[in-house]
Structures are given as C-alpha cells and as structure tokens.
Write a structure and sequence with these properties.
Blueprint: E1 4-10, H1 14-24, E2 30-33, E3 45-46, E4 56-57, H2 58-71, E5 75-77, E6 81-86, E7 92-96, E8 101-109, E9 131-132, H3 135-138, E10 147-150, H4 154-166, E11 170-174, H5 181-188, E12 193-196, E13 200-205, E14 209-214, E15 219-221, E16 224-227, H6 234-238, E17 266-268, H7 279-306
Parallel strand pairs: 1-2, 1-8, 2-5, 8-17, 9-16, 10-11, 10-16, 11-12
Antiparallel strand pairs: 3-4, 6-7, 7-8, 13-14, 14-15
Helix pairs in contact: 1-2, 1-7, 4-5
C-alpha cells in the first residue's frame, strides 16, 4: 500500500470528499480515511441543497462523491485513525487502526462532531465525576484504578488498550467488536475483560461513579466510564498537535477563511468548525481546504527537496 501522500483527509463525509476532489484535481497525492456510513449525512435525505429539485438520499450523495474522488485519483481507505503526530521534517504521521502509518505534508480534519451518547441514567449526572468521552484527555486521572470503556469501534478498542497500561483492571463493554484484525488480536491477547454482546443500562453513583449495570444484570464495580462510540473525534486526535479551539465554546476547531488551523499544514472543514450543520457549508469548507492543503503540500515538498 502507498504510504506517502501530499494530503491526507480524515473523514469521508461531504467536507472530506469535496476536499479530496479539489486536492486530487491539482495532481496532489490524496488519501481519504474513514467510512461513509459514519457520516451524519449517510442516513439523511436532502432537499435544500442548491441545484437539486428532488429529494436525494445522503447515501447516494456520498457514494457519488466517493466515485468522483476516485476518478480524480484520490485513494479511499475504509479505516479509522488512532493517532497523529508531527515529525521534525514537518511531515505528519497518521497511524491507522490496521497498524500501518501514512506520511503526509498536510492533513484536513473533516470528521464532523461527535454526537454519540449512551443516553442511559447516570450518564449526564456523572459527567466529569467519572464519566468521560475522551480516553486521551482523562486517562491519567484513573491510574491504578478499575475502569470501563464502552463502544464497538476503533476508539473504544484503542482506548481500552491504553487504559490497561494506566489503570490496570480494564473492562470493555460492546455489542460487537467492529474493528480491524490487528486491533482485534491486540484486544484478545490482552488482559482486558471483554463483555461482548452486552449493553450498559445504567451508570451508578452519587457524587462519583461507582459501577455500571449491564443489560444482563451484571454490575461492574468501576471508578471511571469512558464512552468511546465510533472513531476518534477530530479534537481528540488533534489535541496532541496543539490545535486551537474556538474561544466561545471550546467545542470546535478554530479555522480561518482558508480553513487553516493554528498548526501549519493542518486544516479543518465541515461540522468540526462549528454550525450551521448544513451540507452546503461542509462542501464549501471542503473546497477551500482541499485547494489550500494541496498548495501547502506542494510548497512544503518542494522546500524539503531543495534543502
């Protein structure tokens, strides 16, 4: 598999696919990561997008976008990203759930915003008191304690593996493990206690989390509950790079009119930049980000070659 690219796009929703189309048309080497089924648009029906006089399914729009990006030369990989870091050369390293890594001069964050919650009793009440949505952010608070990670995907699996090194006793609660064979092998070879085919029905505690109650009546004594549904979010992945968030809510990635973040070579597009949650905005952001990232990568690559 090709491992070096000019632009790597995290997210295969409308922002990511539009970015791929515009970047690839400049003859940049482009990779798009993520599954279209994870896009908020996938199950939607669109009737307010310019130049469409009939309602169109989000799935159809995304499939057409995938084909268009491929036609212009973009490589699409149905994989989640586990880690980002920047090398001394200025290039970024992107570690995938398969264990492989990609090198790139520019990254576009286009994964949208996480809206995934368990919606069970105790979740809202104990948020910040043992309930967390970010292993990378809060893991160190639970050193040598018992923790429970909830989720089916790569974020939950990689989070549980990290917690095992910090907390010690780690439980993973999931309907099924929808992860790569590489991650599955790591989970199955570890000391993580996996409760597969189970769901959390309630998070128990008063001033802090003390246990989770599963749908089969099992009660797991635990100090922390990490809810990691789906793939890692843009903010979680980019936090290690020092990306700035919006000053008003601290929930979205701050980007200028060129979709640049405060980190050179790192761009953001779509819902991760804030409302309105509209396909038109996502596509517009993606267009700008794709062109700007491709230009940045070309200059960075040329400068490195001359050096």
């Amino acid at each position: 598999m090709e491992t070096e690219f000019d632009v790597v796009i995290l997210g295969s929703g409308p922002a990511g696919l539009q970015a791929a189309v515009h970047a690839a048309r400049t003859r940049a080497r482009v990779a798009v990561l993520g599954r279209v089924q994870s896009s908020a648009l996938y199950k939607a029906h669109i009737e307010n997008y310019c130049c469409m006089d009939e309602t169109v399914s989000g799935e159809a729009i995304l499939e057409a976008g995938k084909n268009q990006a491929k036609k212009f030369g973009a490589v699409l990989l149905d994989q989640d990203v586990l880690h980002l870091e920047q090398e001394g050369s200025g290039r970024f390293s992107v570690r995938l759930e398969s264990g492989d890594s990609l090198l790139t001069w520019a990254i576009i964050l286009a994964m949208g915003v996480s809206r995934n919650r368990l919606n069970v009793p105790g979740e809202k009440e104990l948020l910040g008191k043992g309930v967390s949505y970010c292993v990378d952010c809060d893991a160190n608070f639970y050193r040598n304690q018992v923790v429970t990670v909830v989720g089916n995907g790569s974020a939950a699996a990689s989070g549980a593996l990290k917690m095992l090194l910090i907390a010690g006793e780690t439980h993973l609660v999931c309907d099924a493990l929808e992860i790569s064979e590489h991650l599955r092998y790591q989970i199955e070879s570890s000391r993580i206690e996996v409760h597969i085919g189970r769901q959390v029905r309630r998070i128990l505690g008063d001033s802090e989390v003390r246990a989770v109650l599963l749908d089969n009546g099992t009660e797991i004594k635990t100090s922390g509950v990490f809810i990691e549904l789906g793939a890692k979010g843009a903010i979680e992945l980019a936090s290690g790079l020092g990306v700035a968030l919006d000053s008003d809510t601290m929930r979205f990635v701050a980007a200028n009119k060129k979709q640049e973040t405060n980190v050179p070579g790192l761009y953001a597009a779509g819902d991760i930049c804030g409302p309105p949650w509209q396909i038109a905005k996502a596509v517009g952001d993606g267009c700008v980000a794709g062109l700007e990232a491709a230009t940045y990568a070309r200059r960075a690559r040329t400068g490195a070659a001359r050096a």
